[in-house]
Amino acid sequence: MMSSSSVSISILAVVAMQLSIIHNVLSLNQTNSYLQHICINSEGTYKQKSSYESKLKDHLDSMSNILDYGFVHGVGGAGSKSYYIKVQCRGDASESKCRSCLFTAFSGILRRCPNNKGRIIWYDNCFLYISEIYTFQKVDYKHYLYLHNAKDVSGNIKLFNKNTRALLYKLKEKATRKEQEPYTRDYMYATGEESLGTMKLYGMMQCTQDLSVKNCSVCLDSIIAKLPRCCNGKQGGRVLNPSCTFRYELYPFVKA
């Protein structure tokens, strides 16, 4: 469940990803399921309910009021009590869902990493990154998490993997196109679908909006390269990273 800053974890997808009755709800993006978290032990600890935690909470409260385009970051504290915060919401999450996800994420990370200065948590609609290290505009090459559907695709797995990779590269080109308008909810965010005979493959990619388009491209290349390790022949899968992410499924899961 937890990882040091240099270890990647492969995780079996939650049961909800396997149930078709849940798929219909997920396709409307009405859920905000917890995905995974990392407690970064190398960044040290602090005392619970201390002034550090109180200032952190107040900072997050103020940040929740400026989530109109789905991304916000901030710095606070001083010296050994300094911190950096980054929040990125999914491109199809409304402002209200984004704000709600931020509060859920902070509550969740306090429970799961109660004393850690460095910690990351992912939900369906957002992720929250708190660190003593200033990571603005930098690609994270240390923290990768893999989630996949428990079921394998039927038929030609090699061909399915090839088609999945092709869709992801197509979405990468869309997410990193130079003519994008910054400071919008769908900046460096892309969705798409591809027909595979009687099936349809749906995909989503996103970078955090502090990255340059060039660094977004670099980050997306790094997670696409994780596809064989993450999701070989699986009906659905994700790679989560603090700088970028992808997801694919055999059912629709984002708003059109």
Automatic annotation (TrEMBL):
Domain Gnk2-homologous as annotated: residue spans: 34-135, 141-253
Leader sequence segment: 1-27
PROSITE patterns according to UniProt: GNK2
One protein family per Pfam: Stress-antifung
Keyword terms of this UniProt record: Repeat, Signal
Name of the protein in question: Gnk2-homologous domain
